[in-house]
């Protein structure tokens, strides 16, 4: 009986499998388990794991922390809007915020050093997409996520917003400059 | 139950309950009209993302992208699926449809919901994308339309379930329900879960948009929204797999290799898909790694396993049926001599290959917890899901439509010459479209983004030239696929509304006669074996499956390697 008719045998669950099915199920199961265990494996031996460290916050509280860092560590300004470029000390907590339609402030890191990068949104959802290195995360209002990152390439990285956030979404860019060590 | 409520299709022998037939026709017609609207939006959106053309202004682009997403992913798919549910219950079980009146109420709610939602988007006050992430506000009618549609669809699900009960009570079939109906039941159960999640998230959001609730947590919204958003993809998968089995049965008289394996595979979908909303939250703040790993893999990839099983058993059953007809030379004579000129078959087979090789592999790769870091929200993501939901589900539904035109609508298929080429244009166009998007996404091009040149930004950024080339290839291939879609709509509309009825004997059309009478295959009861190789009933399919696995493993490894080159983070 074909698949659009009731099964021919009343007790179809006793019908034996064909060898082709049994073999394939075995292979596919092994592969599935392999892929599953690859993820915890990478947590232990891999270097790229997003931390689950995050805090509830409010736009006001987060803005205050960001501004304090900007006031302390700004090294220059850029663009007509005089956006501050902040060079925080290695190992420190760095605050980046997304708002319509800007990443604030611009950052300058040193290659090979580690930073605790906090990110939150002041208004709607945004997407943090660092290019060309290609790191992407979701940024939500009310949540402050913390990534511990170690830039291992120098040069200019651009933060592109990759969650739709209204009509200016495609203009929402930011920068992380990475300088060679010892500068 | 008076007899004149039923009609038997002379060609296919299928028995239609007339009230069910009217409902199926209504749902299918609405679905195709929606496909047309979504398709026009697709054309404009594609021409905007094609950098050399960059057609629309930004506000129109985001508005039409919203319209494209909701109409295609929600309205087209689910409207067609309700028709499939009625077909798999009333028609395949030769049973009356339970409560046609209530079913019409469901239909009306769905239609009103579609209109209300589209009117909100058309007014320009709801360009929030189909995901409508809070706290970006939309016109309240945007959510209201979705809610009405969901209630209507839920009614359709219950009518389907009630029909199964009626069929059992009235003993319209013996033994167990057919495999295809079992697949539809899987889709229906998942749909009920999905729609419940939809209600939990959309009703408060609607009240929030009206000012009755003052805060909705963005993270919570995403968790519940994706219980709707991802599970509904599992409805599509269950539905199109059921359609694959149905077409294998219709075109080849194929019977499942074993009922047990195929049914257990469907059952795995039900058991594990609620977990899948994690796919979309892999780089969200605050979720623990354990939760993400367990859920994104649907508990150790058991639902992926299920799809890999269907991917073997559907073509495997075709191979067995073909071999039983004497096409036993070599590994692939059964496939070479398949009816490639029949769009019911060619569409279904392209759907199967595209879904597995492009959509399936990319989905598992980007759904890997850590690999998602290099893919989230890039245009790779729409690349992946156009392979699943367009090449997989949409093309499978198109193929089924070529069968329904003569049987359900009693019309000859118009322009059979065009219809023959349609699945190739659509399937190959879409394959190249999705691969180009995945390539561009790997280079960091973003989804839902109007301007990859960033011309109006204070701080610029330049993608490599190859990213622009890939987006151009995406544009050209998208237009080819849209041409294929337009032919489908042309053929369907002309056949259904202006076509010659099948009774009038000049047979240009793909006649159901040829399809259903395709020599009933006699497969020895209990086992298949005889015509195979190495003790395998379907050796050709097995070789194809190994080829698939090889590509899968290779591509999976390449992505880990790429991830390893990214800045260390923890
Ligand atoms: C030939 C047909 C089609 C073409 C050329 C096409 C093209 C596109 C393009 C260019 C995008 C925009 C990607 C972006 O900028 O983010 C898009 C998005 C999308 N498409 Fe299609 N599409 C087609 C058919 C379909 C179908 C049949 C479905 C569903 C069944 C579908 C579902 C979607 C969804 C859900 C989105 C995402 C919208 C969002 O980001 O909110 N598409 N499509
Ligand atoms: Cu943004
Ligand atoms: Cu944005």
How would you sum up this structure, described in words?
The complex is a heterodimer of chains A (183) and B (570). With 183 residues, chain A is of the alpha+beta class. Helix content of chain A is 23%, strand content 36%. Chain A has a 7-stranded mixed sheet. The mean pLDDT of chain A is 94. With 570 residues, chain B is mainly alpha-helical. Chain B has 2 domains: 13-229, Cytochrome c oxidase-like, subunit I domain (Cytochrome C Oxidase, Chain A, Up-down Bundle), CATH 1.20.210; 259-450 and 462-565, Up-down Bundle (Cytochrome C Oxidase, Chain A), CATH 1.20.210. Helices cover 67% and strands 1% of the residues of chain B. In chain B, strand 1 (6-8) and strand 2 form a beta hairpin. Chain B starts with 5 loop residues before the first strand and ends in a 6-residue tail after the last helix. Classes of the chains: A alpha+beta (183), B mainly alpha (570). The complex binds protoporphyrin IX containing FE and copper (II) ion (CU) (2 copies). The site of protoporphyrin IX containing FE has 26 residues of chain B, from helix 1, helix 2, helix 12 and helix 14.
Number of domains of chain B: 2
Class by alpha and beta content of chain B: mainly alpha
Major sheet of chain A: 7 strands, mixed
Overall mean pLDDT of chain A stands at 94
Number of strands of chain B: 2
Strand order within the widest beta sheet of chain B: 1-2
CATH architectural grouping of the largest domain in chain B: Up-down Bundle
Please give the CATH class of the largest domain in chain B.
Answer: Mainly Alpha
Helical content of chain A (DSSP H or I, runs of 4+): 10-25%
Strand % of chain B is under 5%
Element order of chain A: H for helix, E for strand: HEHEEEEEEEEEEE
* Separation of the first and last Cα atoms of chain A: 77 Å
Can you identify the CATH superfamily of the largest domain in chain A?
Cupredoxins -  blue copper proteins
CATH architecture of the largest domain in chain A: Sandwich
Radius of gyration of chain A: 24 Å
């Amino acid at each position: 009986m074909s698949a659009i008719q009731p099964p021919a045998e009343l007790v179809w669950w006793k019908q034996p499998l064909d060898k082709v099915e049994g073999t394939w199920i075995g292979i596919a199961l092994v592969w599935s388990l392999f892929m599953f265990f690859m993820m915890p494996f990478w947590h232990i031996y891999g270097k790229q794991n997003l931390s689950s460290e995050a805090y509830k916050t409010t736009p006001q509280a987060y803005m205050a922390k960001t501004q304090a860092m900007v006031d302390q560590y700004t090294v220059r300004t850029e663009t007509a809007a005089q956006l501050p470029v902040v060079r925080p000390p290695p190992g420190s907590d760095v605050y980046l915020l997304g708002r319509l339609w800007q990443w604030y402030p611009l950052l300058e890191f040193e290659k090979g050093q580690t930073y605790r990068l906090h990110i939150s949104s002041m208004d709607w959802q945004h997407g943090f997409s660092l290019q060309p290195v290609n790191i992407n995360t979701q940024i939500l209002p009310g949540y402050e996520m913390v990534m511990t990152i170690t830039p291992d390439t120098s040069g200019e990285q651009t933060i592109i917003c990759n969650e739709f956030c209204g009509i200016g979404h495609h203009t929402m860019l930011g920068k992380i400059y990475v300088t060679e060590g010892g500068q | 139950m008076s007899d004149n409520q039923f009609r038997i299709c002379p060609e296919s022998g299928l028995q239609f309950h007339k009230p069910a037939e009217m409902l199926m026709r209504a749902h299918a017609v609405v679905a195709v009209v929606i496909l047309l609207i979504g398709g026009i939006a697709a054309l404009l959106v594609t021409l905007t993302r094609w950098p050399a053309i960059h057609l629309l202004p930004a506000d129109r682009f985001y508005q039409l992208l919203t319209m494209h997403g909701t109409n295609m992913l929600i309205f087209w798919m689910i409207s067609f699926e309700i028709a499939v549910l009625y077909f798999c219950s009333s028609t395949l079980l030769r049973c009356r449809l339970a409560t046609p009146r209530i079913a019409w109420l469901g239909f009306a709610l769905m239609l009103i919901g579609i209109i209300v939602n589209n009117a909100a988007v058309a007014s320009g006050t709801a360009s929030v994308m189909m995901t409508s992430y809070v706290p970006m506000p939309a016109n309240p009618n945007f959510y209201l339309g979705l809610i009405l549609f969901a209630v209507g669809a839920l009614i359709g699900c219950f009518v389907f379930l009630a029909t199964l009960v009626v069929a059992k009570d009235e003993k319209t079939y013996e033994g167990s329900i057919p495999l295809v109906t079992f697949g539809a039941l899987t889709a229906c159960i998942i749909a009920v879960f999905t729609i419940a999640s939809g209600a939990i998230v959309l009703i408060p959001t609607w009240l929030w948009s009206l000012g009755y609730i003052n805060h909705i947590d963005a993270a919570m919204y995403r968790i519940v929204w994706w219980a709707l958003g991802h599970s509904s993809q599992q409805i599509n998968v269950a539905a199109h797999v059921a359609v694959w089995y149905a077409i294998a049965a219709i075109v080849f008289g194929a019977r499942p290799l074993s009922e047990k394996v195929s049914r257990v595979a469907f059952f795995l979908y039900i058991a594990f898909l609620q977990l899948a909303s994690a796919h979309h939250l892999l780089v969200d703040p605050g979720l623990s790694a354990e939760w993400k790993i367990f859920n994104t893999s649907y508990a150790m990839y058991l639902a992926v396993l299920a799809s890999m099983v269907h991917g073997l058993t559907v073509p495997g059953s075709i191979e067995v049926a073909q071999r039983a007809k004497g096409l036993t030379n070599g590994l692939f004579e059964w496939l070479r001599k398949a009816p490639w000129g029949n769009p019911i078959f060619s569409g279904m087979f392209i759907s199967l290959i595209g879904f597995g090789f492009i959509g399936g592999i990319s989905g598992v790769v980007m759904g890997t917890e850590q690999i998602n870091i290099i893919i989230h929200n890039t245009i790779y993501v729409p690349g992946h899901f156009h392979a699943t939901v367009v090449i997989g589900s949409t093309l499978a539904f198109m193929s089924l439509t070529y069968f329904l035109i003569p049987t359900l609508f009693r019309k000859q298929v118009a322009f059979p010459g065009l219809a023959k080429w349609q699945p190739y244009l659509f399937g190959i166009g879409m394959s190249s479209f999705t691969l180009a998007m995945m390539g561009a996404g790997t280079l960091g091009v973003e989804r839902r983004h109007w301007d990859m040149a960033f011309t109006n930004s204070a701080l610029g950024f330049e993608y490599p030239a190859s990213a622009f080339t890939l987006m151009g290839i995406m544009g050209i291939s998208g237009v080819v696929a849209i041409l294929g879609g337009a032919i489908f709509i042309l053929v369907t509309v002309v056949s259904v509304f202006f076509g010659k009825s099948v009774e009038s004997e000049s047979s240009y059309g793909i006649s159901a006669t040829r399809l259903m009478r395709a020599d009933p295959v006699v497969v020895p009861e209990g086992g298949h074996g005889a015509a195979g190789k190495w003790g395998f009933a379907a050796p050709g399919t097995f070789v194809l499956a190994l080829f698939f696995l090889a590509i899968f493993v290779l591509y999976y490894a390449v992505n880990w390697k790429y991830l390893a080159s990214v800045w260390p983070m923890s």
